[in-house]
Amino acid sequence: MPKICEFVPGSQRRKIDVHAHVLPREIPDFEKKFGYGGFVRLDHKEDGSTHMIKDGKLFRVVEPNCFDTATRIQEMDKACVQVQCISTVPVMFNYAAKSEHTEEIARFVNDDLFSICKSHPDRLIPLGTLPMNDIRRAVEEVRRCVALGMKGFEIGSHVGEKSLDHRDFWPLYKECEKLGALLFVHPWDMDSWSGRLNKHWMPWLVGMPSETAQAICSALMGNLLVEFPKLKLCFAHGGGAYPSIAGRVNHGYKVRPDLCATECKVAPELLQKNLWVDSLAHNPQAIGLVADTFGKASLKSINL
């Protein structure tokens, strides 16, 4: 299994779900508060469902397990999951908002995550969100949350036109490495998947795995793991499409160093074993490829 699937606190092994999204039960009307759109609010229905509304339109329908902790714990018990690392739904990143507003929303979400996890500290671990559109603010939020006990943070696969290897993000990586904080990278914002590709839910089915593969390539060839060798990077969905294209990426690095080795002099195949991924790959064959690409759980574990 991929390394992220087993954390080892002491000598006791536990089944941990690292990829579990939550929402606050009540979300302020940020559109009204800030004076512009792009924010999510919740509309709780009498049938027990909840509608996520964005810019006056239905974004998604979610069930009580998304915000009701008692329901979540019951479902964890049924699935024999001892611990969940809970993180927000990526639409709550709000990287396109004004940075002071993104920071305010991040603090609201993170405080809610803390509150949820305090009720079941042995079952729930918070992974916070950060105002990635302003790295100074993001670093400050990392420091605030780590001081309160948070162990890691969920970030998007890109911020606007900036991929994860952009130098603007390096102060964040330095701080997370220093504090031992995990960064869980989730694909999001597949706005480029429009026109003929915007059918059959392809932005999510195809775009998300591609987003994650691009983020991994950026981390590997952008010199992140050389500059920050102790940085803990975990990628969602079993690394997305990367396990399938890892051979192509490494071949490209060897035969076209003029294009691929411009920033990092260490081959991706030597660095990819230093990454973590979740096991959300949806079939056993894919899990085998994920394990072969990134390494097996018995080799290493993340301490959270």
TrEMBL record:
<dbReference type="Pfam" id="PF04909">
    <property type="entry name" value="Amidohydro_2"/>
</dbReference>
<dbReference type="GO" id="GO:0001760">
    <property type="term" value="F:aminocarboxymuconate-semialdehyde decarboxylase activity"/>
</dbReference>
<dbReference type="GO" id="GO:0016787">
    <property type="term" value="F:hydrolase activity"/>
</dbReference>
<keyword id="KW-0210">Decarboxylase</keyword>
<comment type="function">
    <text>Converts alpha-amino-beta-carboxymuconate-epsilon-semialdehyde (ACMS) to alpha-aminomuconate semialdehyde (AMS).</text>
</comment>
<keyword id="KW-0456">Lyase</keyword>
<keyword id="KW-0479">Metal-binding</keyword>
<keyword id="KW-0862">Zinc</keyword>
<dbReference type="GO" id="GO:0046872">
    <property type="term" value="F:metal ion binding"/>
</dbReference>
<dbReference type="InterPro" id="IPR006680">
    <property type="entry name" value="Amidohydro-rel"/>
</dbReference>
<comment type="similarity">
    <text>Belongs to the metallo-dependent hydrolases superfamily. ACMSD family.</text>
</comment>
<dbReference type="GO" id="GO:0019748">
    <property type="term" value="P:secondary metabolic process"/>
</dbReference>
<dbReference type="GO" id="GO:1904985">
    <property type="term" value="P:negative regulation of quinolinate biosynthetic process"/>
</dbReference>
<protein>
    <recommendedName>
        <fullName>2-amino-3-carboxymuconate-6-semialdehyde decarboxylase</fullName>
        <ecNumber>4.1.1.45</ecNumber>
    </recommendedName>
</protein>
<feature type="domain" description="Amidohydrolase-related">
    <location>
        <begin position="16"/>
        <end position="296"/>
    </location>
</feature>
<dbReference type="GO" id="GO:0005829">
    <property type="term" value="C:cytosol"/>
</dbReference>
<comment type="pathway">
    <text>Secondary metabolite metabolism; quinolate metabolism.</text>
</comment>
<dbReference type="InterPro" id="IPR032465">
    <property type="entry name" value="ACMSD"/>
</dbReference>
<dbReference type="InterPro" id="IPR032466">
    <property type="entry name" value="Metal_Hydrolase"/>
</dbReference>
<comment type="subunit">
    <text>Monomer.</text>
</comment>
